[in-house]
Design brief:
The structure holds two protein chains of two kinds. Helices cover 49% and strands 18% of the residues of chain A. Chain A has helices spanning 15-28, 51-75, 89-100, 121-135, 144-151, and strands spanning 4-7, 32-38, 80-86, 104-108, 138-142. In chain A, helix 1 (15-28) crosses helix 5 (144-151) and helix 3 runs parallel beside helix 4. In chain A, strand 4, helix 4 and strand 5 form a beta-alpha-beta unit. In chain A, strands 3-2-1-4-5 form a five-stranded parallel sheet, with helices on both faces. Chain A starts with a strand and ends with a helix. By secondary structure, chain B is an alpha/beta fold. Chain B has three domains: 36-128, Immunoglobulin-like (Sandwich), CATH 2.60.40; 134-196, no CATH class; 198-565, no CATH class. In chain B, the strands form two sheets. In chain B, strands 1, 4, 7 and 8 form a four-stranded mixed sheet that branches. Chain B has a four-stranded antiparallel sheet with strand order 3-2-5-6, with no helix packed on it. The chains are: A alpha/beta, B alpha/beta. Chain A binds chain B through residues 8-14, 38-39, 42-50, 53-54, 57-58, 60-61, 63-65, 67-68, 71, 116, and chain B through 3-4, 153, 156-157, 206, 213-214, 254-255, 258-259, 262-263, 265-266, 269-270, 348, 350-351, 354, 358, 415-421, 522, 525-526, 529-530, 532-537.
């Protein structure tokens, strides 16, 4: 078991997750594995014939998002790699945990009800339990508050 | 893959059925010089010819009519009814058709005399009035349900339209034997509403697009847009908008945004800015410039085919107005995002290098061939009208030539055709055909006609804004399909509208109206879907806040052009 798994999708909501994983990597010396999941569910209502081509475009976009996160990790003096998988986000995180057995898994935490995030607060704990069951990893929640407190 | 096969099978069955029924329906004019004929034409209250009216020569009293001879009216409303050698003095013509009031008209004595002498006569034009039956309300209800299912996303667009068409036919076939007033139309009638010019044009263009999209042209263009702008956002934004818009004028908007959005996100990440600053104006540009050509949007394809408006007509009558609207859109986008556009942020050298690596043509050979074929197709679109070459034929010629020249994996190319969309269009034509058949469209046309009167300026304003506002909330393809007969009626009755200006108003409203809300156009939804996967959510509120002013500006400018032009 080694490494820190940090699933991201880019954008402002991933900033706290990336920052938490970098901080943890600095403390533990572990490698960060940034994970981006290509999810094509939004194509179900149109352009079904273009799925293959769009999948490639989204892989490319994901690679950019990962490179951006890796760049931040590198600037902070930590080691980071990017991983792209395709499918449903939750299932792919679990599958990665089963395959690679990371030591830590960083999850984004919603600040309040209805905020845009991968999971609601209620489901987040259930998800964390599933991760622990899959790979015994320690699950750490990150939030915007942590970052702002740190900046203060 | 399974979905593609299923859709392909449905398409094949439909095509086979059409072939068989068209064989059955071929009725050559019964030319028999030994008889005389009564010729005539039938129209409805909207002055449109009525096809399929049973015209019978009858004698006797109303309660006991004896049919001496009968004929059906053709697509142009004309009929030729064979008259027996001995014509009774009280002979009359009986006109009957589902969804119209029956009409019995006496034959004038002088015509009767001519017929008895063995001469053919021309009967005066007959206008039939509509009859509102339960079928009217059922067809209307099913149309509304299909619209709601599409708008809410409760069912896939294609499934909603396909189910709607099936229910309409099921009611006609299974309900009418017990309750004759439930009859809407039969299958042969239903398929006459499918516009095959539209279906084959879309199919041909899909094959061409499939080749082009795999050449890396979008990556190349986008990277060079960045290079030309020197990273200056104030220049980069309009250049990207122009690339997106011009692509949308020749490819469909959804494909353009599917390809442009991931690339734009990459550019934005490399420049360390929010992708929404570029994406929102891009999708607006796609919806605006898309209407500049006949093939730019499905709504234009529908309008062009129905209104017999050529590629050149769109270029000369609409394109300048579209570019005027685009200019307004660029200024609006600059003002809206002025703060973000003027902010100096350092880009990421690593990501910019990656952007450069990707900004290459991946298949120059195919791009070159597609370019030549594209030029050929443009020439055929432009000059083909001189020999009445339909746009669908040009698209099929172009697609075939490209496939023969490139010789790709044919399964892959056939798979690139979005059969789901084609089945959607065919089913939708049937659903819209049903409301046409039962007279709902006529009722709407009459109502709008009475509301507008004979004022062309008022008609232009009403059609444009009515289409734009409605396209914000309902899918613009079914809306446009339903509006076409209404516009045809208005074109016929309003002096000055014969220039087909109202069709251009519909084109502008239906397409640019899509900018008013996130659900207004499929391209908006696709852009939002991809942006969300990059961590940038486009909410309904955000889109409307930026989009509604864009709608008002672009529609006003395009309408202004139409006022100047016509």
């Amino acid at each position: 078991m080694s490494g820190i798994l940090c699933a991201i999708r880019g954008g402002p909501s991933s900033r706290p997750t990336i920052a938490t994983s970098i901080k943890l990597a600095q403390e533990t010396g572990e490698i960060i594995y940034f994970l981006y999941v290509v999810n094509l569910d939004f194509l179900t209502h149109s352009s079904s014939s273009k799925t293959n081509h769009i999948s490639q475009e989204l892989h490319d976009m994901g690679e950019f998002i990962l490179l951006s996160a890796q760049e931040q990790a590198s600037e902070a003096g930590t080691q980071a790699e990017g991983v792209i998988r395709e499918g449903r986000v939750v299932e792919e995180i679990i599958a990665y945990c089963e395959d690679q057995s990371p030591l830590y898994v960083i999850l984004g935490q919603p600040e309040e009800e209805g905020e845009d995030n991968l999971l609601s607060l209620e489901r987040l704990q259930t998800f964390a339990d599933r991760i622990k069951k899959a790979c015994q990893a320690q699950v750490i929640f990150s939030s915007e508050k942590d970052i702002s407190q740190e900046e203060d | 893959m399974a979905k593609t096969r299923l859709a392909g099978t449905i398409l094949f069955i439909l095509a086979l059925a059409i072939f068989l029924f068209s064989m059955e329906n071929v009725s050559a004019a019964d030319v028999n010089n030994g008889f005389s004929y009564i010729f005539g034409k039938i129209q409805d209250a909207q002055l449109q010819p009525v096809e399929g009216v049973e015209v019978s020569l009858v004698s006797g009293v109303n309660s006991n009519l004896e049919t001496l001879s009968s004929a059906l009216t053709q697509a142009d409303g004309s009929y030729a009814i064979k008259v027996p050698l001995l014509v009774p003095k009280q002979a009359r013509l009986n006109f009957s058709r589902h969804h119209f009031q029956q009409k019995i008209v006496s034959i004038p004595p002088e015509d009767l005399t001519q017929l008895q002498l063995g001469n053919s006569v021309s009967f005066p034009l007959v206008t039939l009035e509509r009859e509102i039956t339960p079928a009217f309300w059922i067809a209307a209800l099913i149309f509304v349900i299909v619209l709601v299912l599409i708008a809410t996303g409760f069912l896939h667009n294609t499934l909603a339209a396909f189910a709607g068409a099936s229910v309409l036919l099921a009611i006609s076939y299974l309900g009418s034997p017990f309750f004759p007033d439930l009859y809407i139309f039969n299958f042969p009638q239903a398929i006459t509403y499918i516009d095959w010019n539209v279906i084959f044009l879309i199919m041909g263009m899909m094959m061409v697009i499939a080749v082009v999209e795999n050449t890396g042209i979008f990556h190349w263009l986008s990277y060079h847009a960045y290079r030309i702008s020197g990273g200056k956002m104030i220049i980069l934004l309009p250049v990207l908008m122009l690339i997106t818009g011009i692509s949308s004028a020749f490819l469909d908007n959804v494909t353009t945004m599917l390809l442009m959005t991931p690339i734009t996100v990459q550019i934005a990440l490399a420049l360390n800015i929010s992708p929404l600053i570029l994406l929102i104006p891009e999708v607006f540009a796609s919806n605006v410039i898309g209407v500049s050509t006949l093939i730019g949007t499905p709504t234009n394809i529908l309008i062009g085919s129905f209104g017999n408006i050529t590629f050149n007509d769109f270029l000369t009558n609409l394109t300048p107005g579209v570019f005027l609207a685009f200019l307004g859109l660029v200024i609006y986008s600059w003002l809206t995002y002025r703060k973000e556009l003027t902010e100096e942020k350092p880009g990421s050298p690593l990501l910019l290098k990656k952007l450069e690596e990707r900004g290459k043509i991946t298949n120059p050979e195919n791009l070159k061939k597609a370019g030549w074929i594209g030029v050929g197709m443009m020439l055929l679109f432009i000059f083909g009208e001189k020999v009445d070459l339909l746009p669908s034929v040009t698209a099929l010629i172009g697609a075939s030539a490209l496939l023969i020249w490139i010789r790709p994996d044919i399964d892959e190319m056939i798979g690139a055709v979005d059969w789901t969309t084609l089945v959607f269009f065919m089913s939708l034509f049937i659903v819209v055909g049903a409301i046409q058949e039962v007279g709902l469209i006529s009722a709407i046309a009459t109502m709008i006609g009475e509301l507008i009167g004979l004022n062309l300026i008022l008609a232009m304003i009403v059609v444009t804004w009515f289409s734009a506002i409605l396209s914000m909330v309902i899918a613009n393809i079914p809306f446009t399909a339903a509006m076409l007969p209404v516009i045809a009626y208005l074109t016929l009755i309003i002096p000055g509208a014969e220039s087909k200006v109202l069709f251009y108003c519909l084109s502008i409203g239906a397409a640019m109206g899509g900018n008013g809300s996130l659900i207004g156009a499929s391209a908006n939804m696709i852009t939002a879907g991809i942006a969300e996967r990059a961590g940038y959510k486009i909410t309904y509120k955000y889109f409307m806040k930026k989009g509604f002013p864009a709608l008002v500006i672009t529609v006003s400018l395009a309408l202004l052009w139409l006022f100047i032009r016509f």
